[in-house]
Structure formats: C-alpha cells, structure tokens
Specification:
The complex is a heterodimer of chains A (326) and B (509).
Chain A lengths: L8 H19 L7 H24 L7 H17 L4 H25 L4 H19 L11 H8 L1 E2 L3 E2 H19 L1 H11 L1 H6 L4 H24 L13 H11 L11 H20 L4 H20 L2 H17 L1
Antiparallel strand pairs in A: 1-2
Chain B lengths: L3 H8 L2 E10 L2 E11 L4 E5 L6 H8 L7 E6 L2 E3 L4 H6 L2 E4 L11 H6 L5 E3 L8 E3 L1 H14 L15 H13 L5 E5 L7 H16 L3 E5 L3 H7 L2 E6 L2 E7 L5 H8 L18 E10 L3 E9 L3 E5 L6 H8 L7 E6 L2 E3 L4 H6 L2 E4 L3 H5 L6 H5 L4 H4 E2 L3 E2 L1 H14 L16 H13 L5 E5 L7 H16 L3 E5 L3 H7 L2 E6 L2 E7 L5 H8 L1
Classes of the chains: A mainly alpha (326), B alpha/beta (509).
Chain lengths: 326, 509
C-alpha cells in the first residue's frame, strides 16, 4: 500500500480549528464563559446544512434558497408542536416539507433546463413572499412548550447537547455514504464530467433531483436543530443561512464548480467559519466586520480550490519574462 | 448445405453491414461495411472527416444508424448507449474524455458499475461498495496489462499515457472482448507509443479484438493485422496489412474528384510582409519557419493534431512562444496578446465560429463592430449607432451576407453566412494579414465557393492570407504555396505548380 499523506487539506483545517480554540481559551474568557457549550449549540445546524449544501455543490449545482427552506421546516415543526403534536410527529413532517420544497428546486432546474442558481435564487424570493402572504404573523410562533424545546436544549451529562451529537452522527453517516455508496460516486461523476457520467450509464437529471431531495432531508434536520433550541420560530430569520453553508463547504475544500471535495472538509469548514466569527466577537469587532470577513474567506477559499495553479504559475512566469525582455 | 464462407462469417466477432448515417446537409456514412475477426487488430484509416468517428460512435451507441445492421458473434446487435455497449463487451477508449479528473484511478475504473457487498449486520438490506474486491480486480487488470498504476492516485495528476491505461483498464473491467481505440497515440511520446503497442499485443494474446482508428500509416504497419480505408463516409478497401504498401493506402485515401469550384485567380505576389523563424512551443510546435508575401495565399495542410491551429494561435499572440521570432516588414515584433497582433494588422478567424468567432446571440452589426468599439464610440463610451450601421452595411454588401439587416441575430444565420460575418468582423479591423482557420468547415457548397471568392478578392486587394484547411481540394484550389505539417513540425513546402493530393498526403502521413 502507498503511504498516506498526513497533512491533507482536512487535517490542516482541523488543526486550524483547534488552534483557534486554544488561542481563544488562552487569551479570552472563551472557555470560562461556556464558549465550548455555545459553540456546540450554534455549530450543529451549520454542520448539517453545510453537508446538505456540499452534496448539491458536488453535482455542480447550488441552493440559494436553503435558508428559506429552513424557515419552512421550522415553521412546520413549530405550528405542529403548538397544536400539541409530539416530536415523533412534527419531526418527520418537517423533514418531508424540507424534501418537497428542495426537491421542487431540483425538478424545476432539470425539467426546464434552468441553471440551479437562478431557480433557487428565485425560489428564495418566492419563499419570503410566501411567509409574508400566507402564514399567520409571517409565520412567527411564540411561547413554544417543552414538547418542542426539550430535545434542542437537552444534554448528555449536562455537558454535550443532544443536537451536537445528532449533527456529528449525520456527518458520519454521510461521510460513509459518499465513500461506500454508488449514490456518492454518482454525485461526483455528474459534477465532474457530465458527458462521461452519461457514458457510464448515469442519468444526470435523475441524480440532480435525488440530490435535492437528500439536501431537503438534511435541511429538515438542520432546521429542526436550530429551531428546537428556542421557544419561538420566525421563518424569515433563516434567510441568509445558505451563505454560511456555502462558506463552510467552500472553505472545507468543496469545489464550487462541482466534482470534488470531501464532507469531512465541510464539517471542519463549518467549525472554522464559526470559530472565525466567534473570535471576532471575543476580540470586540462589530457584527458587520464578520460579514466582510466571511466574504473574504469565501473568495480566498474559492481561489484556492478553483484556480489552476500550474497555469497561473506559467502565466506569471511569462508575464515577468516579457517585462524583463522589453 | 452450409457453405464455407458462411461458416467463416460466423467466426466474426463483429460484423457491420450497410450502415447509413446522415446529419443535416451531410451524408456522414454511406453503405459502411466493416468486420472484426477474433483477436485481430483491424486498423481503420482515412482523412479528417472521412467518417471514422461517426462509425465508432455508431458502434458504441452514441449515434443511431439511419439504416443497416450490426452483428455481435453472429447475433443481431442493437446498442442504445455507451454503457449498453460496455455491458455487451464493446468498449471504446476515448481520448481522455470519459474520465473524472478529481476522482481516483480506482473510482474511475468502476464508475457506474461498482462492485458491492452487503453491509454486515443489515441482513443484506443495505449493500455498500466493496473496495477490497474492486482493488483486487483493478490490480488483476493492470497486472494483465503489465502496468503498475497507483489505484489511489487522482486521475488529474496522471500523465496522458497513464490516463489512457486507466481508460483501457476501465474497458477491461467490463470484460470487454472488443476494444475501439480512437487515435490512441495522438498525445503520446514515442516511448509511450511503444508501451501502448506492447499492451495491445498482450490484449490480442488474451483474445481481445481491436478496431484501431488512426491516420498514422507507420503505426498501422507496426500493429495492425488488417486495414480498412474509408473516404467521404464510404468503405473503399479492406486488405491484410502484409499485402499492402503505404503508397497503396495513400492512393485509396485520396482519389477524391477535384471539382473546379474555386476560381483561382493569379495576381502579382509582392514582397515578404510576415516572417516566423523557429517557432517553438514545448511539446506542440517544434521549430516552424514560414514567410508570407503580400497578396499571397499560403495554405497550411496536415492532419488533425498536426499543430496547425496551435501555430496560428501562436503567431497571433493568443499563446506564448517558448522560442522563435516573428517579423513584420522585417522588424521583430512581440505579441503579448491578440489585441497587439490585431493592432499590427493581423487577424485570426477561428475554425470554431460558435465558440471563438462570434457572439451568436448578438446581432450581425454588433458582431462586426465588436473589435472596433473603441473606434466607433464617442466620449463616455457611447456607441455611435450611425457609424456602426455604416460599417455594418458596407461589409454586409461586400460579402453578400444574406440577412434582412444588421440587426439580425447571428444565431439564426446559416453556417456559410455566419462564416461571412466572421470574415466581416475580421476585415472591419482593416487587417493586412488574415489567418483563416478552416474557413469553410460546416458550410454548404454554394457558400463555400462564395467564401473562396472573397478570399481570392482579398488577396487581389493585396492582403496576405494564411489558410489552414483539412479540405485537400480547397488547399489545392486556393493556395499559392502550401506548408505541410505533422506533429508540430513543418514537413515540407510545396509551390503551386508542385501541388498534388498525393504529395501533400505523403508529407502529412
């Protein structure tokens, strides 16, 4: 067997995350102010959402409406919980809603040959309009009871939130699926070389619809993980979450053009994006700096994953050579 | 009573009879017939556009034939898709196109037909990919090929030759009995070609039959048992390689009737205006010299992969030279990009109009004036519509572009008229030197002779023209002088009175 490289992109990312935690623990009151605990709470939905988004990006697509789909999911769960439904009822219902809405994105994109970025950008707006028009109080639900929040606030040994465990289990399952299932390989194939995928007997259209359904399933979980930590639900508050998912995926090495990347990377990407914004808060920066920082991180990450460094080097060399020659 | 010939035709692994295939305006294949014996290498050769690729695409189910039939081991064969062909034991080795660059060798080999095993403890309900089994099988295949390839390597990191081995391994993972190799040596070095031939011989020894598509005659004599020549979509001849000479093959490949479509006019040819000396681009161009005179049409001939387009791109500043000099009127020039070449009066008209030549969703006039925007816009970058119309109208008239007006969208024009718009766009920059890459590819006969008339007139006006063409009659009919290229080298230069199809092909093959 060939030797395995130790310093892969994923391990380096993991080390950076650890370094951040160590730095914050040593220089600020991160550790003493329940920093780790709130990290586990906040990062759980991001992990699951980043995995959902990564699957879609693997196929060369994207979902700009992921945030507003979370809104529908949490509204469904909240409304049912309000009317007294137990978790075994509102959880599957919310997940099915996620799958239907995300699946619709895939179906429209494939059937009408519209690029997914356009479909999902449009659906993002449709969703927001839908909240305002058709949902009572724009879907705002308050004073949710224990039947809704017990899981989101629950902890093992008063230390590790249930939802963090859920997000790690989901991550583990999907990392396994990407490696050990035909479905996983198919996603890379469609995003990597569509024509070759067809030649290999893969139906790209069906794959895209499938990946959006799976994405919807995961967004269902992500939406629940986020909603169930709170006693109120406001669907429109989820708008913009998709950008965090995309950032996490891209920072984790998922190629925005499709065809390559690892879910373990997306997992660390989610942690890193969280750590960066937390670090800024602890260092006393304002909110809006975080947006700017997130944007810059996306740019750098895309630059690293997409750029053809060989060609870049070649061009730069020639540019310098030409200047010296003149 | 069974006759002997019938018994023998049952021996054939693959038999293709009377295949017809046409595309709008073109008969790609006419009554094509070919067969394949067990464990033989059957070479198929012909000029560019002879129909080799179409034939292969029919065998592998990418195209459906209009008429005709195929038989596999004596049984009627109907193929819907490449995966269908694979599963019936027919595999095609594409030139890299069917690989996934970001996946590993192992993942590539088994993409779409992964080996699986049940996940322990799930009562066979869930099955997962069986990596150990796939690794074993892949290793077995590479052992059979006599190759050691790292199964976990990313395909993008492999060299061209290794990628090809991965393609072959992928084909063998379906237990293919028939392999189709499409110009397999096009991108290989001599040493890699030897390795490939070694592999082909091993496969043959294992009873695999191969269709070997190539226009490199030397290779055919090295590796093939039989050879079939096709020309203009028709089967010309099939013969044992041992019984045929290179000259015979060449004579089968040419023999196309020269119709006098192109009015070659003789004018005064002037002084040298453009010179290239020792043009080198690593691995692509190997020291090309050429000169071009005022009012001259210089033809550049050669087979696909000879480096003709690459030469044009290098001369026009699209790509960088590793070494070599370009002289304009005797003065050395460097073109860092195409804009600089254009500013020096050199324009390039691409063979791929749709991709590089025109912005097809835009109108004719917008396309023609695209390189001139700076000239026709007034302060603040506002385009002078009147100037735009004037330029457009004059060229539409001069080149007889058939469209209601300049506002017509290029996408809706015929191929010939699109090409004229390409030429108009080039002419509007008032060039002295035009580099035309396959100027009549994909245009119909009438438009073709019109484009030739335009080219001829341009030369008469004192413009110098480099015309790259795969169409031999076009080269013969139009050129004052012809340069023949092969694998990045200039093989020879022929003056008009020494031109013949045979001479050109001898140099090109």
């Amino acid at each position: 067997m060939k030797h395995k490289r130790i310093f892969t992109r994923e391990t380096i990312l993991g080390l950076i995350v650890l370094a951040f935690m160590a730095y914050l623990s040593l220089t600020t009151n991160f550790a003493s102010r329940n920093g780790f605990f709130s990290m586990m709470l906040d990062v759980s939905p991001t992990i699951v959402g980043a995995i959902a988004m990564s699957l879609v990006i693997f196929t060369g697509n994207i979902d700009i409406s992921a945030g507003t789909i979370l809104g529908f999911v949490s509204y469904t769960a909240g409304e049912l919980a309000m009317s007294g439904a137990p978790m075994v009822l509102f959880v599957p219902a919310a997940i099915v809603v996620g799958m239907l809405i995300a699946g619709l994105n895939g179906w429209i994109s494939v059937t009408f040959r519209v690029p997914s970025i356009v479909v999902t950008l449009a659906m993002n707006m449709v969703h927001l309009g839908f909240y305002a028009t058709f949902l009572r109080n724009s879907g705002w639900i308050e004073n949710l009871g224990d039947n809704f929040t017990w899981f989101g606030r629950g902890m093992f040994f008063n230390l590790v939130p249930y939802i963090f465990i859920v997000s790690l289990v989901v991550a583990a399952i999907f990392i396994f699926i990407m490696r050990y299932s035909k479905f996983g390989k198919t996603l890379y194939a469609v995003g990597g070389n569509r024509q070759a995928a067809i030649y290999a007997g893969i139906n790209p259209d069906r794959t895209v619809i499938k990946v959006y359904l799976v994405e919807g399933f995961l967004l269902g979980i992500a939406g629940l993980l986020k909603a169930m930590t709170r006693s109120d639900v406001l669907p429109s508050s989820f708008q913009g979450r998709e950008m965090t998912f995309i950032a996490a995926a891209v920072v984790g090495g998922v190629n925005i053009m499709g065809g390559s990347g690892k879910l373990i990377g997306a997992l660390f990407g989610a942690l890193l994006v969280y750590m960066l914004s937390t670090a800024m808060i602890y260092m006393g920066f304002q909110d809006y700096y975080q947006f700017a920082l997130q944007g810059v991180i996306i740019l750098i990450a895309v630059f690293i994953t997409v750029t053809d460094f060989k060609a870049l080097k070649h061009n730069l060399r020639h540019a310098f050579a030409a200047r010296e020659g003149k | 009573m069974e006759t002997k010939t019938e018994a023998r035709s049952d021996d054939l692994v693959l038999r293709i009879e009377g295949i017809y295939k046409s595309f709008p305006g073109v008969n790609a294949l006419t009554n094509m017939t070919i067969d394949l014996r067990p464990a033989e290498v059957h070479a198929v050769c012909g000029e560019n556009g002879a129909g080799k690729s179409t034939l292969m695409k029919i065998i592998t189910g990418i195209y459906k034939p209009d008429r005709g039939w195929m038989k596999l081991n004596g049984e009627s064969l109907d193929i819907d898709s490449p995966i269908d062909a694979y599963s019936r034991g027919i595999a095609i080795i594409f030139q890299e196109t069917s690989l996934f660059p970001d996946l590993t060798v192992l993942e590539n080999i088994f993409m779409g037909h992964e080996l699986k095993k049940p996940l322990p403890g799930t009562a066979r309900l869930i099955s997962i990919l069986d990596y150990p089994a796939m690794r074993r099988k892949a290793k077995e295949i590479f052992d059979r090929l006599g190759m050691a390839v790292d199964l976990e390597a990313r395909v993008a990191d492999l060299g061209v030759a290794t990628k090809q081995m991965v393609e072959i391994a992928k084909a063998l993972s379906f237990d293919s009995r028939i392999l189709i190799l499409d110009e397999p040596t096009a991108a290989l070095t001599n040493k890699e070609v030897d390795t490939l031939f070694e592999t082909i011989r091993k496969l043959k020894a294992h009873g695999v039959s191969m269709l070997y598509i190539s226009h490199r005659l030397d290779e055919i004599f090295q590796i093939a048992d039989r050879v079939t020549v096709i020309r203009d979509g028709e089967h010309i001849n099939t013969e044992d390689v041992a019984k045929v000479t290179k000259d015979e093959l060449v004579s089968w490949m040419v023999g196309r009737v020269l119709t006098n479509l192109y009015p070659k006019e003789e004018f005064e040819i002037g002084e040298v205006v453009f010179e290239a000396r020792g043009i080198v681009q690593a691995g692509v161009l190997k020291g090309i010299d050429l000169e071009l005179r005022k009012g001259e049409i210089l033809g550049i001939s050669g087979l696909a992969g000879a480096g003709r387009t690459e030469l044009a791109l290098a001369l026009c500043g699209f790509t960088r030279l590793d070494s070599g000099r370009i002289l304009l009127d005797g003065k050395e020039r460097h073109f860092a990009n195409y804009r600089q070449a254009m500013d020096n009066g050199i324009v390039y008209i691409s063979e791929d109009r749709q991709k590089y030549g025109l912005v097809v969703p835009m109108s004719i006039s917008e396309n023609i004036t695209l390189p001139l925007l700076a000239k026709i816009s007034r302060g603040m970058g506002i385009i002078d519509r009147a100037a735009e119309r004037e330029i457009n109208d004059s060229y539409m008239e001069r080149l007889a572009i058939k469209a209601p007006d300049g506002g017509f969208v290029v996408n809706n024009l015929s191929g010939g008229n699109q090409q004229k718009v390409s030429v108009a766009k080039a002419l509007a920059t008032l060039p002295r030197i035009l580099v035309l890459d396959e100027p009549t590819r994909g245009v119909d006969v009438g438009a073709k002779s019109e484009i030739h008339r335009i080219i001829s007139n341009l030369a008469k006006d004192g413009k110098s023209i480099i015309m790259i063409s795969s169409d031999l009659p076009e080269i013969l009919g139009m050129s004052d002088r012809v340069i023949v290229m092969k694998t990045g080298s200039k093989m020879g230069e022929l003056m008009r009175d020494a031109l013949s199809q045979e001479r050109i092909l001898e140099l090109a093959l």
